[in-house]
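note to self: dont lose this again. the chain is below, predicted strucutre after it. 352 aa total, dont forget to put it in the shared folder this time
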Amino acid sequence: MANPYLLRKAASAAFFSILLLTAGCQSSDDALHFEGEAQATTFHITVYGDARVEASDIQRWLAEYNRVASPWDSTSLISALNGPVLVAPDHPYLCELLQIGRALYYETEGALDPTLAPVIEAWGFGVGPATLLPGDTLALEALMQHVGDTSWFSLAHLCTGNSPAKLALDQGRPAPGREGTRTQLNFMSFSQGHSVDIVCDSLRARGATAAFVEIGGEVRTFGVKPDGSSYKVGIELPKQGKSSEYAQTVELNERALATSGNYRNYKVDPVTGAHYGHTLDAKTGWPIQSDVLSATLIGPTCAEADGMATAAMAMGMEKTKQWLAQHPEWDALLISGNEAEGLQVWASWNFE
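---
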């Protein structure tokens, strides 16, 4: 089976920049509402309970996450980790990214592989413009040299005290098993969901008893609203441009939801006019055609839901259904087909 990989949110160099933050306001329902723009998208946050939270807190949390995870910031920790000198990943957010990435790699049998970073960049789905020409097999083979290298797994252990690997990095030496490696890592397939989890955890620490946190369509909720009603989230139909039509509306209580799609982020070959989607085969590096047009996953954390939605696009319909059958604690809504001939919607809760 081919092990493909999807990166869907590398849209612009402003991905992690905080563009605007509006002040929080207390509404008639005794909730605090925050909204603004961050990560080249919008966010909406509703907080219940006696929470000690202001707009500046939201801005600070997101800015700190940027300093860790932004690939567009040459001074961020992820940029340093991918730099020529190995450094110890001693920030908890970076440690979590490494650990989540490793777990998702295993969970998806390599369908989600962070080491595809240089190939993602070459196809133009990362920070800079495309440098790889369609059909340039030799260049792609060179880029794939370190894709699939799992030596970076050792870095996921560096957050738990003075391990031999961490001591080596602190002393300026490569971590055991990482000597001479040129592996690059890209966590953007689940980092936006991870930022949602970070905000949720921060709100809990500030006294929030319930909250709805949405960044760029990735959502997580916790607690019970004062009126006891459920949080509801609309799942958008996959159409070109911004759509206001929903495939379904679902209740989301103490869970997280993320959607991934390959119908907007693609490249066009200037010679042939062929479309190259940003779903890449982790074994070959070539774009593949997924039979899933949109995948929405619902699970325990937003980072996991984000990553599994990405992986579902890569694994395809049947492989994703098999995975769901083995993980009954998860739910999913998968959309296939096309606008011209019609869309087919499959939801796991219709088969329980």
